[in-house]
User: Fold these one by one.
Assistant:
Number 1:
Amino acid sequence: MPVTQPTDPADSAAALWDALLPARVRVVEVGPRDGLQNLEAFVPTETKVALVDGLVGLGFDRIEAVAFVHPLAVPQMRDAEDVMRAVRRHAVRFMALVPNRRGTERAVACGVDMLNFVISASESFNRANLNQSITESLAALAQSMPPAREAGIAMRMTLSTSFGCPYEGEVDPGRVVAIARRGVEIGCGEICLGDTTGMANPRQVYHLFRELAHVLPTGTERAVHLHNTRGSGAANLMAALQAGVTTFDASIGGLGGCPYAPGATGNVSTEDMVAMLHGMRIDTGVDLPRLIAAARAAEGMLGVHLPGQIIRARGM
Amino acid sequence: MPVTQPTDPADSAAALWDALLPARVRVVEVGPRDGLQNLEAFVPTETKVALVDGLVGLGFDRIEAVAFVHPLAVPQMRDAEDVMRAVRRHAVRFMALVPNRRGTERAVACGVDMLNFVISASESFNRANLNQSITESLAALAQSMPPAREAGIAMRMTLSTSFGCPYEGEVDPGRVVAIARRGVEIGCGEICLGDTTGMANPRQVYHLFRELAHVLPTGTERAVHLHNTRGSGAANLMAALQAGVTTFDASIGGLGGCPYAPGATGNVSTEDMVAMLHGMRIDTGVDLPRLIAAARAAEGMLGVHLPGQIIRARGM
């Protein structure tokens, strides 16, 4: 029989590789917002609340439960106030997406714990989604800061389509960095880069986050929001972690994407990513068995087939 | 408007990260073998041949078209000779899975270009799959070398369940390394580590391949065979590349897995991985647009829903 061989203790490259990875990361569950907002049929308020309540207490750093956007722009989110009033506020921070001062005021009135202001890094995408230029969106961010500051609520800036735009293709990394800097000047303490349509690759993710680390003031938190549309979400997360990112968004069961293209996933699946990180001995604070149970429950609750892998793996 | 910021040219960490990645990798398409062998219904020989012919000329280093195993053990592969006789042998090497001397002789008679001898790193899994101890399987490998050598056909050893076993759980990395060394002593020029049930994590993949690099003789090729059962296949591929692996198996459309668990995928999807690598400017030699077309054609040909992501992404 073969015998056990000892590991080479002198492998300095391997020690360096280990040192690239963080000991602990923060998980932001965005399924109730980013996952649901792409569903065609309106999800009843009580179902949304049940979905969120099932995620409370699992150990997330934050849950993004709702978006305070115009009800005609995103009808799915028209009950944002009702959802926020009803959810169990316990042991987790609630983040809410806002696109302008009006949304910020609504979110503040609901007592959210953190605001997430979204601007696209691509002019065409920003125009298509918000009917604004990037300059106008940055002005809207500046106008949203006073009510946020007055309420003492931290503001994150998410830069969507940071790694590619379905209209423009490649996005200039210099532009992403410049908008991020402007966001910090305006008052955002956290900058999240979003791969909105899953076009990123790990090399791009690594380098853009390294560049952000050099350019942004010390203490600015960097976060990543990845989609798995082209099957590289897990690799992109690895690259972001290696670039020093320690906060990432994910969606329970991979909820999201286009309902008309089965298998074309949205966000990376929270439980798949948490399981991978735990396997690597990276702490997330999340209770994995309960998270997997919550993902399976979400499928039943919403009546959809979720693209997450672990929920279908045998023996899990 | 924000202006473009220059990249920091003095980022030595980023240069080191880039240096971890290879400029070129070899892709081994294993869909016709690993993908098909899990399908319950027998796929007609002409369909298998059409599937393989659609993969010829796309730029793969190799195609694993068949397994020369006992027809009662794997009825799906009972027409291996017929398939090998009929496929278009052009501009690609054909690899065949073999479990013993009898299989090796059948493969040699068909004029395959490379042999792939599979042994499990877990006693329980080897026993369940081959009804042999690992020691017996290593003896079978030794008995298979003379006909291979006589025909001048190179032998790869694939160590399945190298990163985890559904029966035993964790697999001792020292045992994996020891069996790999024995395989090289017997005459295998390439050692492939297989994550048969998708249990690997990137840290484990990186370290096990680093260890192999230290222990195996210079010139021994290392390859990786990954499954995406738990959604970490792409991240595991990244880790393998960073550990210096430059040959990987993949399956068109992610063909494989359990037909009774939709979404529980088999091998990593060839086109998703090739697209990710091309995005990172890593050359594969594979024609991506034709590969995506072949994956879509495979779905129709086989009448199955494939878990690959890119084939469902819009605009691809």
Number 2:
Amino acid sequence: MTRLTCDISMSLDGFVAGPNQTLQQPLGERGELLHEWIFRLASWRERHGGSGGETDADDEVLAESLRGTGAVVMGRRMYSGGEGPWEDDPNAEGWWGDEPPFRVPVFVVTHHPREPETKQDTTITFVTGGIEAALEQARAAAGGKNVSLGGGASLVQQYLNAGLLDELQIHLAPVLLGGGVRLFDHLEKPVELEATRVLASPSVTHLRLAIRAPR
Amino acid sequence: MTRLTCDISMSLDGFVAGPNQTLQQPLGERGELLHEWIFRLASWRERHGGSGGETDADDEVLAESLRGTGAVVMGRRMYSGGEGPWEDDPNAEGWWGDEPPFRVPVFVVTHHPREPETKQDTTITFVTGGIEAALEQARAAAGGKNVSLGGGASLVQQYLNAGLLDELQIHLAPVLLGGGVRLFDHLEKPVELEATRVLASPSVTHLRLAIRAPR
């Protein structure tokens, strides 16, 4: 069954990006601390044109998510690199560059119609019909695998509010950002979660949460 | 060495109490969800005049903290039951009743001078000299064990800001409260944490964090 899942790194104080995001610093101040756990991993390096890296339990968590993903849905801001003036430019280049790491069809939720693009193994489709339309297209393209929600926080909140997210895996980094973009914000109703797996290393705790009906 | 430690239950969205605390509901709305993991445990029941309960890995985490504690420091609001009009009454009874579960000396940080009280095995001393004085008295009374910071969030923040907290163990409940009292709020400078142990069960993840110097 094609499920909608989301893997996202979060600080202990609940932020998925630091304060003062810019095009040069799309994760905000100190936001890179959220992702320190991932840069050293073999599966991440392989996707980003590198080699080597560690093949430990954290790497297996990442590899498992990548293997299970048949399509990606992401927000306009995620595609073009955080919030800022450039987001008003509907033709802004994606910050993923000419070799995006996805290797599966990507669907960008946007208000601006735009022709699809193909870069290396990745086709990027811009969907103007809303989050349900994007999910529907992604499901059709996922070949029976999961649709992975790439973020940002606002899009995750929209899918949570619509009751469309099946699973959330939070990669909890033991850092405090003190400000920035909160993952759990703007939720319109209670969301019930069930921890279905927790794995931990010194650098990150992977919390896999099934989304249940609200209580 | 006597260290200052803190065990506290927190929701995934960072709250240690729900919204709208009252004397009848000192944990706020849905705040009891933070502590669901603990009520079933043998060590908790034993401390609260009950019997039976489970003796699983969660129970061992709790028992370990209780064994290691030689004295407790808590805030005035924690002593009298959350925020609210009653906190203006300096003689309000502690909401712990006549059989407080601590069984070690308790030091309450308050602005109101008050005579010490002894209830069962617990002596309660009211300290008006500030957080450092309370910690000093608690250390002297702890018999070489740890001083445990009982909360609430405001007092934890004061000790964090003063650089006096050595270890924080967050019991992370897989629930969203959507509002209430945040643990990581009002921090005056970056706090660097190091995860020194993570244990998890389906109902709670125990994150033990050493507090390092700010980066």
